[in-house]
Amino acid sequence: MSVTIRNIVRCRTCGAEIFWATTRDGKRIPIDAVPVSNGNVLIESVNGMCTATVVGAGGGEYVSHFMTCPHAAWHRKSPAEDRCVEGSWVVS
Ligand SMILES: [Zn+2]
Questions:
Q1: Can you name the residues that pair with 21 across neighbouring β-strands?
Q2: How many domains, in total, are found in the chain?
Q3: Which domain holds residue 57?
Q4: How many angstroms is it from 1 CA to the middle of ligand 1?
């Protein structure tokens, strides 16, 4: 199952294309918009939410922007104002 992300935004600090997802314990995390072959995050549709599950390295299609952003510390301190809006992405 592949997911088409429709709410791509740009990282406020480095300008990379990212989107926001919610982990199963309710935390919002930024995800790099470009799928990778050895990522550690799975993106799924769970009850209409864009849900991220962190798996082992190489087990996912995406990677957390926390891992790639040169300003990762800023992300950890800043509230996640952007939203992964219901309906802004689809499962195809
Ligand atoms: Zn960034």
A1: 29
A2: 1
A3: 3-70
A4: 27
